[in-house]
From TrEMBL:
It is found in: Membrane. CDD domains: TSPO_MBR. InterPro entries: TspO/MBR-related_sf (IPR038330), TspO_MBR (IPR004307). Keywords: Membrane, Transmembrane, Transmembrane helix. The keyword Transmembrane helix applies. Pfam families: TspO_MBR. It comes from the Bacteria. The chain crosses the membrane at residues 44-62, 98-115, 127-149. The keyword Transport does not apply. GO terms for cellular component: membrane. This is Tryptophan-rich sensory protein. Its main location: membrane.
Length: 150
């Protein structure tokens, strides 16, 4: 029962904080006015994708916490989460593509490091982070493209 509660707590915190940050930093007219690359996805896709990813991230965080709450892997999970939650205010809130890049590149590296650290310790957590790594890799390319085009 304790494991289920910890999983639910992690999922609710990650999804809830992610949603709160999202509604506090709505893209708005600034983002709409930017020149976008041809591979820019429609705006409606971001909410569902991030919600699904946040559930996977929350599960991986709970697993790391349950296996070793003070481990480097758990600390890395919290570090990447801080960078994740910082990107939206940096990019949309500050309306800065450069600041977004300054945050998203270390975020991607932290995600990849978490996958690497988890690969032998907890393969499930590593695999839960693979879609996240792919999406943030794509988001990094998109952020860079927006920076270069504007």
């Amino acid at each position: 029962m304790k494991k289920i509660l910890i999983h639910l707590l992690f999922i609710l915190l990650v999804v809830g904080l992610g949603a709160l940050i999202g509604v506090s930093n709505v893209p708005g007219t600034w983002y709409q006015s930017l020149a976008k690359p041809p591979f820019n996805p429609p705006n409606w896709i971001f909410g569902p994708v991030w919600t699904a990813l946040y559930v996977l991230i929350g599960i991986a965080g709970a697993r790391a916490w349950l296996s070793a709450p003070a481990s480097g892997r758990t600390q890395l999970w919290f570090g990447q989460m801080a960078l994740n939650f910082l990107w939206t205010p940096a990019f949309f809130g500050a309306q800065s593509m450069l600041l977004g890049l300054v945050v998203i590149v270390p975020l991607l590296l932290a995600i990849l490091a978490f996958i690497r650290m988890s690969w032998t310790a907890d393969r499930v957590s590593a695999l839960l982070f693979v879609p996240y790594a792919l999406w943030v890799g794509f988001a990094t390319l998109l952020n860079l493209s927006l920076f270069l085009l504007n």
